[in-house]
Amino acid sequence: SAINFLERLCLTWMFFFMMCVAERTYKQRFLFAKLFSHITSARKARKYEIPHFRLKKVENIKIWLSLRSYLKRRGPQRSVDVVVSSVFLLALSIAFICCAQVLKGHKTFLSAVYNWEFLMWEAALLLFLLRLASLGSETNKKYSNISILLTEQINLYLKMEKKPNKKEQLSLVNNVLKLSTKLLKELDSPFRLYGLTMNPLIYNITRVVILSAVSGVISDLLGFNIRV
């Protein structure tokens, strides 16, 4: 019993340590995204002591897009995504087991000790996933903030009225901004769950399996069929 307890304790510590490393990486990504969103604002750039430039030239737009791509790839990617996917699969498996136990006999579900352990693990994993989902969602909002490009387009239109002799050059920059806006909209991955990068297989399993299990539990508890 003592050896079993120590093994479970060590495995639990290793698992939650990996989750803490993943959360730290997500916090760094959010910090990079936050500072990146302040580059085109003179006031915020001065406040955070970061470089500032406006998107009024084609060269500046190229630098802005390159910097965005570099910051999104900075830091560990695959290892963190593997950890998050593993946590999500574990939480999904525990939820499926709990749903199966409830369908088997919801009156005797809480009488088993291992079910209480399952519930504790599920609560801890869900809290962690909610934290990561919040950070990932905020990071995506910073990188996918189209209002920055729209603001620069408005500034270009105003500058065209003041400087009609540079209308052709400013029109070229405006067209590049429009293409950049379309590009950012197309780059959003379809397999994302509140900012968490999901494998397509995991994404489809989540949609089909867990929603079916939850539908069965709700139908069993309420007494009539509900399809989620």
* Radius of gyration, CA atoms, in whole angstroms: 24 Å
Counting DSSP H or I runs of 4 or more residues, the number of helices is: 8
Tell me the structural class: mainly alpha
Order of helices and strands: HHHHHHHEEH
Strand tally is 2
Q: List the uncertain runs.
A: none
Taking strands numbered 1, 2, ... along the chain, how are they ordered across the largest sheet? 1-2
State the helicity in percent bands.
over 70%
**Structural domains: how many:** 1
Plain-language structure description:
By secondary structure, this protein is mainly α. It has helices at 2-37, 42-48, 58-73, 78-105, 113-143, 147-162, 167-186, 200-222, and strands at 192-193, 196-197. A hairpin with a 2-residue loop joins strand 1 (192-193) and strand 2. The mean pLDDT is 79. This is PHTF1 factor. Keywords: Membrane, Transmembrane, Transmembrane helix. The chain crosses the membrane at residues 6-26, 82-103, 115-133. It comes from Peucedramus taeniatus (Olive warbler).
Helix-strand blueprint:
Blueprint: H1 2-37, H2 42-48, H3 58-73, H4 78-105, H5 113-143, H6 147-162, H7 167-186, E1 192-193, E2 196-197, H8 200-222
Antiparallel strand pairs: 1-2
Describe, in short, the structure shown:
This is PHTF1 factor. With 228 residues, this protein is mainly α.
Jot down its keywords:
two-stranded antiparallel ribbon, 8 helices, mainly alpha, 228 residues, single chain
